[in-house]
Amino acid sequence: MFNFHYRLERNAIGFVLAIIVVASIGGFIEIAPLFTIDETVEKAPDMRVYTPLEVAGRNIYIREGCYACHSQMIRTLRDEVERYGPYSLAVESKYDHPMLWGSKRTGPDLARVGGKYSDDWMTAHLNNPRDVVPESNMPAYRWLLRNQLETGDLGEHLAALRAVGVPYTDDMIANAPKDAVGQANPDTDLATGVLERYGEKTDVSLFDGNQGSVTEMDALVAYLQVLGHLTDAAHTTPQNEVE
C-alpha cells in the first residue's frame, strides 16, 4: 500500500488524476443533496420576509458580533427542545443571508427568543445586561440607545437581498426608509404602511420606549423579537421523538 503511494507521488500525471478523482468524489457528496432540496426543505406558506427595521437590526447583530456567543439553531436533542422549544427547521432560515446558525453558546440560543421577553426587558438587557441578569458576563451595548439608525440606504439592502432570492417587491424597496421609521412608531400613518406591506402580524412597537426617533436599539430589539416568528412551521409540523 505504501509502495503504491510512493510510486504515485513520483508519477506527476497519475498523481494529478488521483487528486481529481478524490476531489470529484468529495464534491459529489457535497453537491448531491442539493438535488433533493425541494423534498428536504419544509413548506411554509405563512413565511414572511424581514421588514427593513428587522434587516437593519440583523445587520447590527452581525456588526456587534452577537453570533459569536449566541447560536440560532435548536438541535433535535431532548434537553435543547425542552429548554428552547421545537427544534429548528431548514425553512426557518430560508431568507437568512448569511446564515447565523452559529456553533458556540457563551449565551443561550436565540432561535426562538422572539416574544419571550418584553421590549423593555430587551432594551434594558442590551443597555446593561446586569440590570436584569446579575450573573451575566455579556458586555453592555449602551451606544445603541444613542446611535440614530441610518435608514436612507435600507432600500438598497432590500434590493441586494432580492437579488439572492428574497421576494421583496418594488413597493417594499421604495418604501424601506419610511417603513423602518413606521415600525418603531405605532399609531402613525407610516406604521399603517408597514402592516399593509408586511402583514397584520408584524410587530409594530416603541421598541426602545421612545416615540419619534429611531435608534439602533429599536432595530436590534425588532430583530430579536421576530426570531422564531417568521413562520409557524416548527409549531405546526409534527416533530419526531427527540433523542
TrEMBL record:
Domain (Cytochrome c): residue spans on this chain: 52-228
Domain of life: Bacteria
Region forming the signal peptide: none
UniProt KW keywords: Heme, Iron, Membrane, Metal-binding, Transmembrane, Transmembrane helix
Record InterPro entries: Cyt_c-like_dom, Cyt_c-like_dom_sf, Cyt_c_oxidase_monohaem-su/FixO
Gene Ontology MF: a single term: electron transfer activity
Transmembrane segments: 12-35
NCBIfam families in the record: ccoO, PRK14487.1
Name recorded for this polypeptide: Cytochrome-c oxidase, cbb3-type subunit II
Organism: Phyllobacterium endophyticum
Gene field: ccoO
